[in-house]
Amino acid sequence: MKYTYYGQSCFLLEADGKKFLFDPFITHNPLAKHIDIKGIEADYILVSHGHADHVADLVEIANQTKAQVIALVEVADWIRKQGVQNVTDVNFGKAKFDFGMLRTVWATHSSSNPDGSYGGNPAGFVLELDGKAIYYAGDTALTVEMKILADLYHLDYAILPIGGHYTMDADDAVVATKYIDCDRVIGVHYNTFPPIQIDTEAAIAKFKRENKSLFLPGIGETIEL
């Protein structure tokens, strides 16, 4: 399985011959100016919630790739109104797709669509791909709802926000790893804007002190999971 980071909370997972793009926000991110979205390929696009820093490039990439877009009901309705045809709505719980089972899980945050319309609830996702279980938390504060994941899965990796201010910071993300029983974390949602700028070396050290690993690939970098 491969993971490519595109900045903020946007990343691509490649597994089982499929490409899964999450929360596409690239062209409006000053740290990702070197990324050409026309070169991005995707079979599926998963959207955790409707905030602009998660959907700014969604319509263009969806139309470009013809990917199947997966989002919660209210965000999916907004996406269809933008002219995107291949959209599947989900809600909390499990849903079956041709790549396998997707579980939509709770996130403690807010959600609205770019036009100000109601965005429903924010969410995270758990996917089982290429023999691994991957948890993407979306934008969330620390919440005890995470504890159920340790009962349901043996998570191989967790993709967690670490920037603070709007979401968990590194300290809370360390606590989250104990809730979900996962020692390998990929950090997202940090450094893009002044309120979420962090000391990355200090964050890595906090995880290391707890015998956990925090991976922070550069924007455009691909790592093997």
UniProtKB/TrEMBL annotation:
<keyword id="KW-0378">Hydrolase</keyword>
<dbReference type="GO" id="GO:0016787">
    <property type="term" value="F:hydrolase activity"/>
</dbReference>
<protein>
    <recommendedName>
        <fullName>UPF0173 metal-dependent hydrolase FBD94_24215</fullName>
    </recommendedName>
</protein>
<dbReference type="InterPro" id="IPR036866">
    <property type="entry name" value="RibonucZ/Hydroxyglut_hydro"/>
</dbReference>
<comment type="similarity">
    <text>Belongs to the UPF0173 family.</text>
</comment>
<dbReference type="InterPro" id="IPR050114">
    <property type="entry name" value="UPF0173_UPF0282_UlaG_hydrolase"/>
</dbReference>
<dbReference type="InterPro" id="IPR022877">
    <property type="entry name" value="UPF0173"/>
</dbReference>
<feature type="domain" description="Metallo-beta-lactamase">
    <location>
        <begin position="7"/>
        <end position="189"/>
    </location>
</feature>
<dbReference type="InterPro" id="IPR001279">
    <property type="entry name" value="Metallo-B-lactamas"/>
</dbReference>
<dbReference type="Pfam" id="PF13483">
    <property type="entry name" value="Lactamase_B_3"/>
</dbReference>
